[in-house]
Amino acid sequence: MSYEALSVTWFLLLGVLLAGYAVLDGFDLGVGILHPFVPKTDHERRLSMNSIGPLWDGNEVWLVTFGGALFAAFPHAYATVFSGFYTAFMLLLLALISRAVSLEFRSKVQSPGWRRFWDWAFFAGSALATLLFGVATGNAMLGIPLDAEGNFHGTVLDQLTPYPILVGLLTLTLFAMHGGLFLYLKTEGEFQKRLRDWMWRSWGLFLVLFMFTTVATILWIPRATANFEQHPWAAGFALVAMLAVANIPRSLYNGGTGQAFASSCVLILSLVGLFGAALFPNLVTASNEVAHSVTIWNGASSQKTLWIMLIIAMIGMPFVLTYSAVIYWAFRGKTKIGEHSY
Amino acid sequence: MDAVFLSRLQFALTIAFHYIFPPLTIGMGVVLVWLEGSHLRTGKAIYDTAARFWTKIFALNFAIGVATGIVMEFQFGTNWATYSRFVGDVFGSALAAEGIFAFFLESGFLAVLVFGWDRVGPRMHFFSTLMVALGSIFSSVWIVVANSWQQTPAGHHIVPVIRDGVEVMKDGAPLMRAEIVDFWAMVFNPSTVHRLVHVWIGAFIMGAFFVMSISAWYLLKRRHEEFARRSFDGALVLATVASLAALVSGHFQADSVYEHQPAKMAAFEGHFETGPADMSLFGIPDAESETVRMNIAVPGGLSMLLFQDPNATVVGLDRFREEDRPPLGPSFASYHVMISLGMLFIGLTLLSSFLRWRGKLYEQRWLLWVFVFAVILPVVSNELGWVAAEVGRQPWIVHPPVEWTANGDVVVGPSGVVEYDETLGLRTLDAVSPTVRASQVLGSIIGFGLIYLGLAAVWVFVLDRKIKHGPTPHEDSGSGGPKGLLGAVKERASESGRMTGNPQSAES
After folding, report:
1. Which residues pair with B159 in a beta bridge?
2. Are residues B372 and B500 in the same domain?
3. Which candidate in A7, A61, A98 is best for mutational testing of the B interface (most B CBs within 10 A)?
4. Which end of chain A is more exposed for a tag (fewer CB within 10 A), N or C?
5. Whether residues B405 and B504 fall in one domain
């Protein structure tokens, strides 16, 4: 394969890893975001946490592998993004740690104070991580000022402008909805009934923010739509996203929550697709000087490494997909609290 | 305090805390496979009980290992951006392979291991346990490959960075990076195998001592004795074999270190003047006067170890510029304490194995008490092994090669010291992120410090509760189901008093 084809392939594979992460960890982050609001009793809180109990850790590996693949395929971009967004990444790490350990620790001790503490840590970690992912996506869309060596010299405050915050809130509502739909599939009875309201609410909020974001993107980020003029097929992502958004209330109304959740998965996939299409071929867009952008052409590893990694991915991914599917299958059905639950 | 120092401090703190858990996971993984395999083979309930108990402890350790592990992957980019750009082509591949081959495997099957007891059959469960154990071992493979490449780079070449068809310049010189030429030569670089074997052995020792510590406590308290004896027996075999193997593996590693990083070996032993070298058993090295104070040494010991000849010449620190020498105190101390602990493990496990063979081990209460607390020691020795490896590599983050003359001396420049080819390595000082400020790193260190202190406290607290609660024989069928969960809980609580979710004793 040519160097160009390999670079594009790795851009696509990173997109696949990111999309996989967003769809999978999206619902368990969403369960965390809804945690203080929907479950009312201790038993319901345990159901909420155990619905994602066997799954969240594997889901998070998609992020870890995305990070590793970015490091390997585009080290220049990895270095720019991770050092440029230093404070944001540190906050993300603290959020992910508190989420992980609150799941593990919460139900180990009976004391209500202990459990309340970890309930809040679970919520705060989930919400903060989601918000940060959204803000990061917003900044990636907007671009950041880079020097000639591809370094960002600003602070975290420079990254908290209206557009990234808007995308951050959008992501919060998206994952809350996604998590609500997932939780609906895993629960029953009174708890499940209460979720219905939250699914509608988060869908409504998402719709409003989605429209705002679309308008803001078209108005503020002309570059984002430029790719669509050259490659009109990429607009297909937008079409699919809109159909998916519309199909969620339709399915909910008809009682097809499974279909609504599937639509929400498709929605997230197409949003990641839109994000990738808007970005291509940039990995980090320089807002000050186009030539300073880190692209898949100037930020890639050597042709040999991209090829080796592709072989590794082609050997590894079928296994990953197979046993992930088997494990999801093993944990299908409604969540029950048993001897081995959190 | 500058950003470099603080970034090093942060990396050291976060990796040291993280590294308590992976060896425990690897070591206990082996124990779990053995227990479940024994249950499948013999059908004895005691193995099942033991496997279920240790799985809970395993899951707790694993969770903290995962939570603190992501930090490591992110820090290469956040704090060491220049390093990431230099090594990404090589190091990144190993890291990505770790994600695809190891992390997915262990985290996926961990779900079945921890939550799947009632969802899959015993064979599938055993298979999952095997996959988790394999996954944790795979993950150690790739991370040790990456780290070994930093110690003894191979399979790559250093080339100028070309962006958009133009050579990138930095401070008037072309910016360079390492690129893979031969993948397998990179994977099997000269130190990979020795170091990997040593890391595994260290992990087995830690896992075994962890199991022995908890089992010894039960034996002392006369609780779950049958369970504790079986766990202790299995772990003792593992610990004895692994402790002896560590000595052999350590010897091969010392040879390899001397060949590729002679300055590191000289710092380990406080060997200043090139010539026959002693092996110091105890001492306080003094970099200024270039002596080891209060030295108790085996004359010619190091020469003997490396060349089987007490008079053989060993390259000393005098062959290196002062700025090219590793920090003496930490290198010397970490190396010596690690080895002393290794010797202690050999003595302790051999003595215990002998007593066990004579059937007297479980009467030696003092020895059981020693084992209760001895778990700290493998944690310390595993950590110190890494301190020795990483501090001894300084001032390099990627160590440049050393050349040898035909008569066993290093090739030196006109001034009589080794002149490293700076372009073939990378100094730690030059590797840090150019945009990250000291205040930011200080902030994140404080953040990690507080969170990790809290985590450590909660870990010990929860672990202590689990241990006090102890193993419980497995009863069939989970709770819940159509008859309603609360009812089931009440029913079972009254008969066993240990059901999860039960207000009286809610441990899981």
Report:
1. B177
2. no
3. A61
4. N
5. no
Q: Does A323 touch chain B (CB under 8 A)?
A: yes
**Helix residue spans in B358-415 (DSSP H):** 365-374, 376-391
Structure-derived torsion over alpha carbons of residues B471, B475, B477, B480, reported in degrees to the nearest 10: -60
- B67 with B162, same domain: the answer is yes
Distance (Å, rounded) from C-alpha A183 to C-alpha A335?
9
Note whether B488 and B93 are within 8 A (CB).
Answer: no
Task: Please check whether residues B377 and B485 belong to one and the same domain.
Answer: no
List chain A domain ranges: 3-330
Whether A325 has a pLDDT exceeding 70, the answer reads yes
B371 and B443 in a single domain? The answer is yes
Hey, are the CB atoms on A86 and B104 less than 8 Å from each other? no
- Identify the pLDDT of residue B338: 94
List, in sequence order, every residue forming a beta bridge with B282; answer none if it has no partner: B296
Q: What is the C-alpha to C-alpha distance for residues B356 and B324, in angstroms, rounded to an integer?
A: 50
For residues A13 and A303, the answer to whether their CB atoms sit within 8 Å is no
- B53 and B126 housed in the same domain: yes
d(CA A178, CA A199): 8
A282 interface with B at CB cutoff 8 Å: no
Percent of chain B at pLDDT > 90 equals 38
Indicate if B277 and B254 belong to the same structural domain: yes
Distance (Å) of CA A23 to CA A142, A175, A264, B27: 23, 9, 8, 34
Cα–Cα dist A92/B215, whole Å: 38
- Among B78, B93, B117, the residue with its CB nearest the CB of A305 is B93
Structurally, chain B folds into a number of domains equal to 2
Residues A69 and A86: their CA atoms lie apart, in Å, by 19
pLDDT tens for residues A137-194?
Answer: 999 898 888 888 888 887 778 888 899 999 999 999 999 999 999 999 999 888 888 8
Domain residues for the domain of B118 are 3-474
Supply the mean pLDDT for chain B: 86
Of B88, B107, B503, the CB nearest to A72: B88
Question: What pLDDT does B488 receive?
Answer: 38
Q: How far is CA A240 from CA B233, B310, B357, in A?
A: 61, 77, 71
B368 CA to chain A: closest CA distance, Å?
28
Tell me the pLDDT tens digit for each residue of A98-140.
998 898 888 888 888 889 999 999 999 999 999 999 999 999 8
Distance from the A106 Cα atom to the nearest Cα atom in chain B, whole angstroms: 10
Cβ–Cβ under 8 Å, residues B207 and B217? no
| Nearest-CA distance A185 → chain B (Å) | 16
Asked whether the beta carbons of residue A54 and residue B164 sit closer than 8 angstroms, the reply is no
Residue B470 and residue B485 in one domain: no
Q: Give the bridge partners for B163, in sequence order.
A: B166
Interface contact A331, partner B, CB < 8 A: yes
Residue range A36-74, pLDDT digits in tens = 998 889 888 998 898 898 888 888 889 988 998 999 999
Question: Is residue B498 a contact partner of residue A339, using CB atoms and an 8 Å limit?
Answer: no
